[in-house]
């Protein structure tokens, strides 16, 4: 090895400056990518913060749909769905299900009668090792067109400005349809009487490789009985959980899964817009809920019902919500699992 | 003195530069994906997982190659603290290159997520579902990513220092293309 050649102090200084510039530039690019220079970027953290209810951060709980109860059961496919998707879950057969009935609130102690939106999380497992996770709600359309608008809705509804919601609704006309549903749709006294809708569109791929834009719903076998909100308010704070527990103890509860296929040009990217009534629908199977378990020690507690966990044969569409939900649900999961001590299990064997 | 002992073998250089690109992409994808709710989130996550496993495989191959072929000696006149830093940083790189993908894989396992690399290609869980393990591994994966990036900055700064200031052949030992003479390059 030769001796290091002589370099003037000046050229060494120049080299050091160059090195500093390279390193600073790389660090800045990294910080930019991480969003540190972009305060306007909608991050999962911001969405989670905006979900915080007036009652405070629901430590140990999901950051939205915080109140819920677990169930297990089966999904029995009738085989008809195979015309749309080659996912094994549509092949005639029975597949185990883990799910969660829940309320669309960030307050885990909310009184059941005060929450307008109800939901169902599902995980269907198939023998090929794949999973399909889904989280659905009972309104027929989503309030907002985009995750950004949903974020603004959260800010407006939490705002102390008395005109905040009025201003928001004026700026977002799509919100009116959801508002009308919330005001006029009948309430029921049971999770078993509600219809749950995957408002986001997804793309099914069939055996031939053809793609179909779809949404799906679970229609209850139980006859819905309309109960006025005033009457519901007289029931206990957890009447829905008690009712479904007793009801399922008395016999399994069923829902028919119906897939709706979009026509070309239907608004697949906007869950605030319903598709016309005459679209082709296919009944693909039946969900049977066989057992209810409290969430605290139940099997759904540690599951993130991330709607982008899909088997091959189903993929996300141009609807921007599943991606946003996936990122925010993951943040919520990371937070609540780190706070498990704030929501202690009752079982003594609390295994790690 | 033979040329073989002055430079890393071509296979080692190939692995180094290939992995440099992969790891930098991985770190940028990582910090980018956790800071957005836009549709690109899913695209980034879908690259992050298979790329992480690719890095794990490449790192294991590279470790084998390193054990087989070793490294060219550092310049005799390199001060001892710099020699120590060079050796320790290499250990740290191997720990991170192998450890980070395992932390990520373990973290997803502990959260009961299916670990899907491509459509239909799925890795088994390497840990049971566990809140505590998930939190521990998540934190480790997150903070070690920044440690990893800081170490890379240090590594780049040191490489450029060798190339431009010390001009001692250390940079040329790993340079992607063959230079006929380190001294010529230094002028």
- Per CATH, the architecture of the domain at 67-139 and 185-322 in chain A is Beta Barrel
Low-confidence stretches of chain B: 181-187
The CATH class of chain B: Mainly Alpha
Q: Do you know the CATH topology of the domain at 67-139 and 185-322 in chain A?
A: Catalase HpII,  Chain A, domain 1
Going across the biggest sheet of chain A, name each strand in turn.
4-3-2-1-10-9-7-6-11
Helix percentage range of chain B:
over 70%
Radius of gyration of chain A: 24 Å
Low-pLDDT windows of residues of chain A: none
Number of E strands of chain B: 2
CATH class membership of the domain at 67-139 and 185-322 in chain A? Mainly Beta
Distance between the termini of chain A: 57 Å
| Secondary structure category of chain A | alpha+beta
Radius of gyration of chain B, whole Å: 19 Å
So, the CATH homologous superfamily of the domain at 67-139 and 185-322 in chain A? Catalase core domain
Quick recap:
The complex is a heterodimer of chains A (352) and B (187). With 352 residues, chain A is of the alpha+beta class.
Jot down its keywords.
heterodimer; A: globular; B: mainly alpha; Fumarate Reductase Cytochrome B subunit; two-stranded antiparallel ribbon; 7 helices; elongated
Q: Would you give an account of this structure?
A:
The complex is a heterodimer of chains A (352) and B (187). Chain A has eight helices and eleven strands. The mean pLDDT of chain A is 95. Chain A has 352 residues and is of the alpha+beta class. The termini of chain A are far apart. Chain A has a domain at 67-139 and 185-322: Catalase core domain (Catalase HpII,  Chain A, domain 1, Beta Barrel). A nine-stranded antiparallel sheet of chain A has the order 4-3-2-1-10-9-7-6-11. A two-stranded antiparallel sheet of chain A has the order 5-8. The longest helix of chain A has 25 residues, at 9-33. Chain B has 187 residues and is mainly alpha-helical. Chain B has one domain (3-186): Up-down Bundle (Fumarate Reductase Cytochrome B subunit), CATH 1.20.950. Helices cover 72% and strands 4% of the residues of chain B. Chain B has seven helices and two strands. Chain B has a two-stranded antiparallel sheet with strand order 1-2. In chain B, helix 3 (40-69) packs across helix 4 (80-110) and helix 4 runs antiparallel to helix 5. At the A-B interface, helix 1 and helix 8 of A face helix 2, helix 3, helix 5 and helix 7 of B.
């Amino acid at each position: 090895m030769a001796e290091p050649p002589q370099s003037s102090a000046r050229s060494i200084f120049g080299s050091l400056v160059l090195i500093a510039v390279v390193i600073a530039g790389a660090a800045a690019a990294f910080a930019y990518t991480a969003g540190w220079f972009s305060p306007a970027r909608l991050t999962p953290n911001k969405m989670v913060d905006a979900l915080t209810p007036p009652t405070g951060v629901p430590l140990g709980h999901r950051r939205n749909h915080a109140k819920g109860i677990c169930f297990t059961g089966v999904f029995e496919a009738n085989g008809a769905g195979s015309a749309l998707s080659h996912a094994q879950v549509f092949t005639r057969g029975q597949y185990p299900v883990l799910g969660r009935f829940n309320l669309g609130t960030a307050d885990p102690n909310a009184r059941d009668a005060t929450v307008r939106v109800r939901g169902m999380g599902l995980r269907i497992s198939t023998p090929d090792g794949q999973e399909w996770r889904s989280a659905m709600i009972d309104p027929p359309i989503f309030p907002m067109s985009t995750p950004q608008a949903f974020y603004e809705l959260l800010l407006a509804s939490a705002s102390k400005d008395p005109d905040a919601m009025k201003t928001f609704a004026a700026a977002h006309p799509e919100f009116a349809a959801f508002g009308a549903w919330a005001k006029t749709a009948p309430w029921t006294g049971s999770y078993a009487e509600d219809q749950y809708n995957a408002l986001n569109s997804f793309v099914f791929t069939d055996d031939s490789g053809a793609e179909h834009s779809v949404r799906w719903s679970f229609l209850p076998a139980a006859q819905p009985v309309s109960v006025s909100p005033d009457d519901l308010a007289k029931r206990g704070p957890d009447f829905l959980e008690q009712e479904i527990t007793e009801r399922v103890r008395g016999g399994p509860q069923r829902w028919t899964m119906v897939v709706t296929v979009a026509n070309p040009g239907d608004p697949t990217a906007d869950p605030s817009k319903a598709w016309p009534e005459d679209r082709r629908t296919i009944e693909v199977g039946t969900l049977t809920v066989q057992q209810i378990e409290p969430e605290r020690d139940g099997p759904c507690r540690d599951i993130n019902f991330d709607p982008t966990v899909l088997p091959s044969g189903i993929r996300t569409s141009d609807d921007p919500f599943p991606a946003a939900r996936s990122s925010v649900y993951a943040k919520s999961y990371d937070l609540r699992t780190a706070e498990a001590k704030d929501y202690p299990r009752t079982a003594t064997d609390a295994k790690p | 003195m033979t040329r073989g002992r002055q430079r890393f073998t071509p296979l080692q250089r190939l692995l180094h530069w290939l992995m440099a690109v992969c790891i930098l992409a991985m770190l940028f994808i990582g910090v980018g994906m956790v800071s957005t709710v836009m549709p690109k989130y899913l695209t980034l996550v879908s690259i992050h997982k298979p790329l992480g496993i690719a890095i794990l495989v490449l790192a294991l191959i590279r470790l084998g190659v390193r054990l087989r072929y070793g490294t060219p000696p550092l310049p005799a006149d390199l001060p001892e603290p710099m020699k120590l830093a060079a050796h320790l940083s290499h250990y740290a790189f191997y720990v991170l290159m192998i450890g980070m993908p395992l932390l990520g894989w373990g973290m997803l396992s502990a959260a009961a997520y299916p670990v899907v690399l491509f459509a239909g290609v799925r890795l088994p869980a390497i840990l049971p579902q566990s809140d505590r393990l998930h939190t521990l591994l998540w934190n480790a994966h997150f903070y070690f990513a920044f440690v990893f990036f800081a170490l890379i900055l240090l590594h780049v700064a040191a490489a450029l220092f060798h190339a431009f200031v010390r001009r001692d052949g250390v940079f040329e030992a790993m340079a992607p293309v063959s230079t006929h003479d380190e001294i010529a390059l230094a002028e």
